Amino acid sequence: NAGVMQNPRHLVRRRGQEARLRCSPMKGHSHVYWYRQLPEEGLKFMVYLQKENIIDESGMPKERFSAEFPKEGPSILRIQQVVRGDSAAYFCASSQYGTGGLNTEAFFGQGTRLTVV
Amino acid sequence: AQSVTQPDIHITVSEGASLELRCNYSYGATPYLFWYVQSPGQGLQLLLKYFSGDTLVQGIKGFEAEFKRSQSSFNLRKPSVHWSDAAEYFCAVGLFSGGYNKLIFGAGTRLAVHP
Question: By a Cβ cutoff of 8 Å, what residues of chain A touch chain B?
């Protein structure tokens, strides 16, 4: 059972370009979470998705950022017109259950490190 | 507002020495608490978690943590540190809201181990 797979591991974009980050959850997991880690900071929650639904996007910047988790395929975090401040590590996590309780463990991918030049 | 504080940004210990990493949280209800470790260039790996019951929880790699409600703390400990433990450690609280747990992370403690 493969873990959470993120690709690419490293992504370099020029200012103004678009960045697409992909996350394939663990097999059997239908809950996906995206976090951003700025240099020297902890992880900040961005968005929580279930298949075809955005449950909580309270941590997403209001502009340029979007996320989806289609019925088929990976979850995508999309950043339009990237700026230098978007440079960060973006982590995806998945869980089998999204509700509270003992089964709330989220498994993290290795992250995508975005560099905007 | 809910928050997690890790007071120590950097800690250096000698190999074989004991370790304690501090974590304090601010949360109105009984929290779900987690410790994760992040090795350089890697993702996060769960070390241990507390949901309820025994306040001393055992994790992987010889780590343990103790939940102290009166101090709002969940400190991570290891009796004898190995060089391979050098990494960044994150404490997190799971906030149950809207039917699910959202993880709120501390800023992390970077551990260096001297031979």
Answer: 4, 6, 31, 33, 35, 40-45, 48, 55-56, 91, 93, 98-102, 104-111
